[in-house]
Amino acid sequence: MKDFGEELRRRRISVGMSLTGLAAAVHFTKGYLSKVENGKSRVNRELAKACDRALGADGELLALVTEPALPARRNAGGIVGLPDGGRYFVGRESELDALSALLGTADGARVGVVHGMAGAGKTALAVTAARRAAPAFPDGCLFFDLRGFTPGATELSPAEALRRLLRLLDVSAEQAPADDDGLANLVRDQLRGRRMILVLDNVRSAEQIRPIVSGDTASRILVTSRGRLPALDDAWHFPVDVLPLGDAVRLFRSIAGGRAPAGEDLATEIVRHCGRLPLAIRIAAARFVAGGWTAARLRDRLADENTRLGALDDGERSVATVFAVSYASLPPDQRRLLGLLTLHPPTAAEAASVEALAGRGPAETDRLVDRLHDAHLVVRDERGCVEVHDLMRMFASEHALPEIGAADQAVAAARLTEHAVATTLAADELVEPHRFRPPTGLAPPSSVPFTDADSAFAWLGAQWPTLVEIVDSAARHRLYDRCWQLAFVLRAYFFREKLFEPWIRTHRRALEAARTAGDPSATGMILNNLGMAHVESGRVDEAIRCHRQAQEQFALAGDDRGAIDALSSLAWARLYHGEAETTLTDLTTVLAVYRRTGRTRNVVIALRGIALAAAALDRIPEALTAAREARELAQLPIDRAMSANCEAWVRFRDSRWEDAERCYTDAAELADDAGSEYERARALTGLGNAAAARGNRRAAARWWAEAAAYRVTLDPSVLGEAESRRRLAAVDTR
Question: How far apart are CA 538 and CA 613, in angstroms?
Answer without folding.
Answer: 17
